[in-house]
Design goal:
The protein has 451 residues and is α/β, with parallel strands linked by helices. The chain has two domains: 136 residues, Aspartate Aminotransferase, domain 1; 272 residues, Type I PLP-dependent aspartate aminotransferase-like (Major domain) (Aspartate Aminotransferase, domain 2), CATH 3.40.640. Helices cover 43% and strands 16% of the residues. It contains 18 helices and 16 strands. The chain has a seven-stranded mixed beta sheet with strand order 4-10-9-8-7-5-6, sandwiched between helices. Strands 11, 12, 13, 15 and 16 form a five-stranded antiparallel beta sheet that branches. The protein has a four-stranded mixed beta sheet with strand order 1-2-3-14. A hairpin with a 2-residue loop joins strand 12 and strand 13. Helix 1 runs antiparallel to helix 2, helix 5 packs parallel to helix 14 and helix 10 packs parallel to helix 11. The longest helix has 25 residues. The structure holds pyridoxal-5'-phosphate (PLP). The site of pyridoxal-5'-phosphate has 15 residues, from helix 6. Belongs to the class-III pyridoxal-phosphate-dependent aminotransferase family. This is Aspartate aminotransferase family protein. GO terms for molecular function: pyridoxal phosphate binding; transaminase activity. Its cofactor is pyridoxal 5'-phosphate.
Length: 451
């Protein structure tokens, strides 16, 4: 029963990113099965999964084809590694497939087990690159406030979230600059384009202030995801791309969320016209059916690394055969069903048109959406772009109403966010927006009750 499962969970499980004590008092929601875009809990309640799990189930739940590919691989060769002069067929085939799908500068991948491991790999690849080039003083990595790059010690240092830094072990040489969050951080009267340009130029100013000879790399997500789905103003990425082109630094695009169709192209860097040297992937590579990550490395970086001899880095599960088999089956589905094109030309614009109408709600400051990722900024004062005094309280209230209304949305501070599976139907998109609207109405009524 649900009560028995909750009791076991409360006794034995420490939950990630949770106040486990508070959660135990309330009891976790136990998800028992899923199909398409729908989740079912242990009491039989159904939820439209507006978050694709944790931004990963791009092809939707219940894909027998992926389960069969994993099962076949587990029977044939459940495990082997890619260390010490060995490899295996699924890793070889997936590496070649990724070279085909990623932008032309990428022809090699370093496999990992997750996004966090991928970003730790980035730190080590960047360091190695500049050491081989005999510029060991280039050690600083520039990142952005509120960025999320993972939870391992290295990746959490790259991330720009203060509560995570407070519990982490600091490593030297990571500097954070502003995020392109116009609604929350623009000056009075500053247009999105002016703000986008100013925020991008913070990169150049930081490079100049610290000295270009000390800067190793700049890392950023095309759209900041866990930071609140921050869709940058149109001027932001072209200016960043210019700076990265003109300066002697590596540019790392963290595509753990934006990769594999989320923004309407295979990768977010293609949507925004940037030219990364390293491209970080995880999540959508297998649609979350198996854990897998990777770092694509551009030819100009590979050429240097290959001159450097041993790279003393790798994971037992780098290129796990069953995970690679899941990825190959997942990517075959995406290509056969033209899911990336569907996001660009069909369901993406359809959902955006409906989602945008939520901006008219009195509680909503802005309702951005790009591809299949969007947000609702909740505010007590639309015109004044004001925030609620107690950050996160209204967001959590709305998130809980959303669950009650059978829709999974996530709250980041007082911003609700969605990233539904790319297979969402038109009818399901209508349903998603109707449930989001009901959530806003419920929250509005409750806020009025609070006075
Ligand atoms: N990078 C980004 C942009 C992410 O959103 C995440 C996870 O949400 C990660 C890295 C970390 O990935 P993982 O949880 O697979 O370690």
């Amino acid at each position: 029963t649900t009560a028995e499962l909750r009791a076991l969970d409360a006794a034995h499980h420490l939950h990630p990113f949770s106040d486990t004590k508070a959660l135990n008092a309330e009891g976790s929601r136990v998800i028992v099965k899923a199909d398409g875009v729908w989740l079912t809990d242990s009491d039989g309640n159904r939820y439209l999964d507006g978050m694709s799990g944790l931004w990963c189930v791009n092809v939707g739940y219940g894909r027998e084809e992926i389960a069969d590919a994993v099962s076949k691989q587990l029977r044939e060769l459940p495990y082997y590694n890619t260390f010490f002069k060995t490899t295996h067929t699924p890793a070889i085939e997936l590496a070649a497939k990724l070279a085909e799908l990623t932008p032309p500068q990428f022809n090699r991948v370093f496999f990992t087990g997750s996004g966090s491991e991928s970003n730790d790999t980035v730190i080590r690849l960047v360091r190695r690159y500049w050491d081989i080039k005999e510029k060991p003083e280039k050690k600083v990595i520039i990142s952005r406030r509120n960025a999320y790059h993972g939870s391992t010690v290295g990746a959490a240092n790259l991330g720009g979230m203060a509560p995570m830094h407070a519990q982490n072990v600091a490593i030297p040489g990571v500097v954070h600059i502003a995020q392109p969050y116009w609604w929350g951080e623009a000056r009075q009267g500053e247009t999105p384009d002016e703000f986008g340009l100013r925020t991008a130029q913070a990169l150049e100013a930081t490079i100049d202030a610290l000295g270009e000879d000390r800067i190793a790399a700049f890392i950023a997500e095309p759209i900041q995801g866990a930071g609140g789905v921050i869709v940058p103003p149109a001027t932001y990425w072209p200016e960043i791309a210019r700076i990265c082109r003109e300066r002697d630094i590596l540019f790392v695009s963290d595509e753990v969320i934006c990769g594999f169709g989320r923004t309407g192209k295979w990768f977010g860097c293609e949507t925004f016209g940037t030219h990364p040297d390293l491209l970080v992937m995880a999540k959508g590579i297998t649609s979350g059916y198996m854990p897998l990550g990777g770092v694509m490395v551009a030819d100009r970086v590979v050429d240097v690394l290959l001159e450097g001899g041993d790279f003393n880095h790798g994971y037992t599960y780098s290129g796990h055969p069953a995970a690679c088999a899941a990825a190959l089956a997942n990517l075959a589905i995406m290509q056969r069903e033209k899911l990336v094109e569907r996001v660009a030309d069909d369901i993406g614009p359809y959902l955006k048109a409906r989602w945008s109408t939520l901006a008219e709600h009195p509680l909503v400051g802005e309702a951005p959406m790009l591809g299949m990722v969007g947000a609702l900024e909740l505010t007590p004062d639309k015109a004044g772009r004001r925030k609620f005094p107690e950050v996160g309280k209204v967001g959590t209230l709305a998130r809980d109403f959303s669950f009650k209304n059978g829709l999974v949305m996530r709250a980041v501070r007082d911003r609700l966010i969605i990233a539904p599976p790319l297979v969402l139907s038109h009818g399901e998109a209508d349903e998603l927006v109707a449930r989001a609207r009901k959530t806003l109405d419920d929250s509005w009524t409750e806020l009025k009750r609070w006075g």
